[in-house]
Each structure stands twice: as C-alpha cells, then as structure tokens.
Amino acid sequence: MRRRSTPVPRDAVHHPVFARFYARLSVTADLRGGLAGRRDELLAGLSGRVIEIGAGNGLNFAHYPGAVSEVVAIEPERGLRQMAAGAAMRAEVPVDVVPGTAEALPVKSEAFDAAVASLVLCTVRDLPRALSEIKRVLRPGGELRFFEHTLAPEGKLARVQRAADRTLWPLLFGGCHTARDTVAAIEAAGFELGTYRRFRVPEKGVRLPSSPCVIGVARRSAVVDRAAG
To answer: What is the pTM of this model?
Structure first.
C-alpha cells in the first residue's frame, strides 16, 4: 500500500522579512549574477510531471522546457508562495503552487518523473527526511535535479561556513545552513548520483559562506524493493 504524507499547517514556515529580502536578491542575482543561466542548465531536458521543492518566488517557472506537462511547486512560506502564484500565471507550462514542507510532501508516492531542488536543501529542518520524501514521490528511475549551497573543500572557507551555521547565519537567512555536504547527503539517501559540478557564486570577488554551490542530477533506482519499508 502506498503511504500518503501527512498534511502540514499552511504556515509551517514563516519568514516574512527574509521573504521580501530574498525576492529582491534573487531577481538581482538572476539578472546580474548569471543565475538565470544556472536555472536553464538545471532544468534542461526535463519532461513529464515535475515536483519543485521550495519554489520560493517562482523564478524557475520561466525556465521549464515545453516537454514538462505539469509542475507541482511546494512552498511553505506564505509571502513567497503568493509571489510564486503570480509567476505561475505567467509560466508557459502548467504550474500549481501549493503549501507544504519538504519533510512532508502533500502528494502521492511515485507520482512524478522528476524533482527539482533549487537553493532549498540548505534550509530544510531535517535533510535526511526531506530527501526520503523526495525519493518517495519519484517514480522508479525518476530524476532529482539539484542546484544547492554546499560545504567547501576543507580549508578556511569550510571553517567559516561551519562557524556561520553555529551563529546568526541561519537566523538571518531563512534557515540557510551553508556547511551541509549536499552531494554526500543525496548519496546517503539512496539516490544514484549522476553528473554534477561545483562552482562559486559569485565566481569572482568576496567569498561568502553561501558562495560554494553544486549543480547536478541524481536518480531514484529503477529497481524498487517492495518488501522494504
């Protein structure tokens, strides 16, 4: 029997000040920082039904290819969800914006051909549980496309990231934890890693705790052990 995830309160996440700040910052980063091109790279070649985890203000919506038949966009923060709903109306593919958290996705198991996580896995409260939920809702062989902050290689910046995560950084930036080893967490969740690459945002200039990023693809195994779980 397929299990259903438990519905969550409408405002399970509430960061109104950060939401307004993020909306302005993200648009500027897309226009001047080259992140629009990263979104094209992240979503290229997708088709079928897609679930987007933590859709924010909906900047990915304009970049989905026409082969995508539907996007279910999960966003827990009310202000960002309202902005995403506006972006959904302008999208060229059907987008349904709904409340929910990554740890309890309000959708059926094995319902999607692909999942998209874009600058959100750093903010979830329980990363292993969130990845387990993403795996649950993907069909066997389905893809996880990810574009995330990640822990830098060992050195000064990695130490700065760990120190930032223990102080005010998550509080000031909507729960963002920059010292998470995103690729290792995805692999530990049972996904099959595909290609991925690391880079910095911005590519030049000051190195912030949030600068190290990774973009890539992973897959849920096409072979599912129905006896497990």
So the answer is: 0.87
